[in-house]
Amino acid sequence: MQLPPKVTERAFARLAEIGAGDQGQALRVAVEGGGCSGFQYDIRLDRPAEDDLVLEGGGQKVVVDSVSLPFLEGAVIDFSEELIGARFTIENPNVSSSCGCGTSFAM
Q1: Which ranges does the record mark as transmembrane (predicted)?
Q2: Segment 47-64, tens digit of pLDDT
């Protein structure tokens, strides 16, 4: 039984701030082949598709396609604000290693 990804309240709040739901969009989180470690995340605003897993909170949506879902089992999708910038982050328990730049990973 797969444990679906979780989305923090902070991530949903950020989506509300940028008005994603008002435009009919959701935060899409996908895993693609590439990067220096084998896989990388694709995080962007997009419209939900019919076969997406939809995670909802605060009137906002985060969607994950069926191909990416096994790679994100038990992951936590969050939003982080630091001195170097603000971004959506993914804490993924399935990652065995990541590259120095932090954008790609291995499983």
Answers
A1: none
A2: 999 999 999 999 999 999
